[in-house]
């Protein structure tokens, strides 16, 4: 009898141990399948990043190659044909070398900015200043360029914004990117509006155009690296780094940047930075 | 009368450097910076040759080429692709659509361009033949 009881107890104990082991295994397997799922998601992310990089590379190479080819070509002509070229032609070629070198420098700067942002080494140099003056300066700079496309540029500033600390050159870079995008996408004869507003303790800047706007399904990707809107027919494609860098600059100021639909049509890019001394 | 070349190129820099040696050779170089008007202008102005970029602001140069070849009035015009996009896909498409040649901007310097297109204009190339006497 005692032997039977002992055996029964052993069987029960064994069953309990087996149950516990099965329970543990069950959860371990669940963990494993979760791990596998995470691994799959990671691989998908990695491959989508790689594919974005691969799609971008030909564009980047083309963008770098163009000014380089122009510089080399102009230099070659100046060396080989100096005696046959007119003064005006020499002037044109030299100006071309200068402007292509500037384009190249800007592009290399953008690539460097992206690299710094991704490695957490991007820094801004704040100085105390008047953001409205920066806005007006940028509007004046772009005014002659807008005339080429028969556009007009309207700049409205809020005089209640006090002087505060920001990186003038970097904010100019953001404005320059947003305004040149607005020029690119604006139909002939339309108006580009730039305005500043004091909202609470923040300074908000808005750049609006009356262009084609951004497709609904692409709005979420606007500020991602290498983003190119699909509705860019008639517009020369860029590197897709401008908005990504602008976001990095605004965030380094502790601010944010976003997109809104412009009313009645087009795009409105807004950024907001805290007014701090 | 000088031969007329349509240079379809939106990049001012490329136009400035590649048009110089052509003008020096006496060609009448006409710049067109968008693809949409090319076919109509070919019908009216009858160029002897077209240098055609692929990346244009309003449409692809390959579509311009296709349109030229599809239209009876423009199908025989000489078209040379002059681009920085050298992917196999673009090259084979250009050849399929009937491009007469495909030149890469970064593979040639502007001073070489007149020689590259001379044959298509019915002119002889300026070969630099070296004769070595033994």
Highlighted features:
heterodimer, A: 277 residues, alpha+beta, Helix Hairpins, Heat Shock Protein 90, 2 domains, five-stranded mixed beta sheet, two-stranded antiparallel ribbon, elongated, B: 134 residues, alpha/beta, Rossmann fold, five-stranded parallel beta sheet, 5 helices, 35% helix, globular, disordered C terminus
Please give a structural write-up.
The complex is a heterodimer of chains A (277) and B (134). Chain A has helices at 2-80, 87-118, 131-148, 168-185, 242-252; strands spanning 127-129, 152-156, 164-166, 191-199, 202-208, 256-261, 267-274. Chain A is an alpha+beta fold. Chain B is of the alpha/beta class and 134 residues long. Chain B has one domain (4-121): Response regulator (Rossmann fold, 3-Layer(aba) Sandwich). In chain B, strands 2-1-3-4-5 form a 5-stranded parallel beta sheet, with helices on both faces. In chain B, strand 4, helix 4 and strand 5 form a beta-alpha-beta unit. The longest helix of chain B has 13 residues, at 12-24.
Content-based structural category of chain B: alpha/beta
Q: Helical residue percent of chain B?
A: 25-40%
Number of helices of chain B: 5
Helix/strand order of chain B? EHEHEHEHEH
List low-confidence stretches of chain A. Answer: none
CATH architecture of chain B: 3-Layer(aba) Sandwich
For the largest sheet of chain B, list the strands in their spatial order: 2-1-3-4-5
CATH topology of the largest domain in chain A: Heat Shock Protein 90
Summarize the structure.
With 277 residues, chain A is an alpha+beta fold. Chain A has helices spanning 2-80, 87-118, 131-148, 168-185, 242-252, and strands at 127-129, 152-156, 164-166, 191-199, 202-208, 256-261, 267-274. Chain A starts with a helix and ends with a strand.
Topology:
The complex is a heterodimer of chains A (277) and B (134).
Chain A (H helix, E strand, L loop, with lengths): L1 H79 L6 H32 L8 E3 L1 H18 L3 E5 L7 E3 L1 H18 L5 E9 L2 E7 L33 H11 L3 E6 L5 E8 L3
Parallel strand pairs in A: 2-4
Antiparallel strand pairs in A: 1-3, 4-5, 5-7, 6-7
Helix pairs in contact in A: 1-2, 2-5, 3-4, 4-5
Chain B lengths: L3 E5 L3 H13 L3 E5 L5 H8 L3 E4 L8 H10 L8 E5 L4 H10 L3 E4 L8 H6 L16
Parallel strand pairs in B: 1-2, 1-3, 3-4, 4-5
């Amino acid at each position: 009898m005692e032997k039977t009881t002992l055996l029964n107890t052993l069987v029960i104990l064994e069953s309990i141990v087996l149950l516990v082991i099965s329970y543990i295994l069950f959860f371990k397997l669940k963990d494993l399948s979760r791990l596998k799922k995470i691994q799959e998601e990671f691989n998908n992310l990695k491959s989508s990043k790689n594919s974005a990089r691969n799609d971008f590379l030909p564009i980047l190479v083309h963008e770098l190659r163009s000014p380089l080819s122009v510089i080399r070509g102009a230099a070659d002509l100046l060396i080989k044909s100096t005696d046959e070229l007119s003064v005006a032609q020499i002037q044109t070629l030299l100006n071309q070398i200068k402007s292509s070198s500037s384009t190249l420098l800007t592009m290399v700067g953008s690539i460097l900015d992206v690299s710094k942002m991704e490695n957490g080494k991007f820094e801004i140099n704040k100085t105390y200043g008047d953001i409205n003056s920066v806005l007006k300066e940028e509007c004046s700079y772009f005014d002659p360029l807008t005339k080429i496309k028969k556009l007009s540029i309207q700049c409205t500033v809020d005089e209640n914004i006090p002087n505060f600390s920001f990186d003038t050159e970097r904010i100019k870079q953001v404005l320059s990117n947003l305004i040149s995008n607005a020029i690119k996408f604006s139909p002939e004869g339309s108006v580009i509006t730039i305005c500043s507003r004091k909202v609470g303790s923040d300074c908000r800047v808005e750049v609006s155009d009356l262009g084609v706007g951004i497709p609904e399904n692409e709005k979420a990707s606007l500020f991602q690296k290498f983003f190119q809107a699909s509705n860019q027919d008639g517009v020369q494609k860029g590197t897709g780094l401008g908005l990504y860098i602008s976001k990095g600059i605004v965030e380094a100021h502790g601010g944010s940047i976003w997109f809104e639909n412009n009313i009645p049509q087009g795009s409105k890019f807004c950024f907001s930075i805290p007014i701090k001394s | 009368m000088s031969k007329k070349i349509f240079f379809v190129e939106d990049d001012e820099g490329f136009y400035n450097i590649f048009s110089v040696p052509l003008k020096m050779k006496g060609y009448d170089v006409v710049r067109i910076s968008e693809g949409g008007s090319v076919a109509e202008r070919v019908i009216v102005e009858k160029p002897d040759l077209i240098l055609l970029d692929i990346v244009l602001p309003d449409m692809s140069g390959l579509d311009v080429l296709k349109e030229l070849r599809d239209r009876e009035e423009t199908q025989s015009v000489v078209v040379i692709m002059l681009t920085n996009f050298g992917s196999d896909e673009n090259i084979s498409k250009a050849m399929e659509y009937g491009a007469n040649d495909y030149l890469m901007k970064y593979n040639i310097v502007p001073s070489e361009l007149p020689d590259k297109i001379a044959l298509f204009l019915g002119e002889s190339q300026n070969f630099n033949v070296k004769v070595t006497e033994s």
